[in-house]
C-alpha cells in the first residue's frame, strides 16, 4: 500500500477529486495548508504599507491506495492540478505499513 500526498492550488481541489473518483479512488482527505517553494511569496499593499506574504495558501490531498493504483493516481492528480504556472505543487509517495478500518477491524487492502 502507498500513501500519496499532493500539495495543490486550492482552486484545483474539485478537479483533483473528480479525476481521482473517475479512476475509482473512493476516499481522500484534504487539508488547508500554507507553504512555499520556488514560488516564494509575493508583496501586497495594505493601507499604504507594503508587506511580503511568504506562505501561500495550498491544499494537501492525502490518499491511501494499493500499489497497483499508484501510477494512475499520480497521472490523474498531475493532469487535474496542472496549470502550467509556477506553484502547481508536488506529489509525494510513501510506503504504508498497516491500515486498519476502525469500524470493522479489517486490515490491509480491504481496509482501504
Explain this structure.
The chain has 112 residues and is an alpha+beta fold. The protein contains 2 helices and 6 strands, in the order E-H-E-E-E-E-H-E. The chain has helices at 13-22, 70-81, and strands at 2-8, 29-35, 42-46, 49-53, 56-65, 90-95. The strands form 2 sheets. The protein has a 4-stranded antiparallel sheet, covered by helices on one side. Strand 3 and strand 4 form a beta hairpin. Helix 1 packs antiparallel against helix 2 (70-81). The longest helix has 12 residues, at 70-81. It is elongated and about 60 Å long. The model has no long low-confidence stretch (mean pLDDT 92).
Summarize the structure.
The protein has 112 residues and is of the alpha+beta class. The protein is 20% helix and 36% strand.
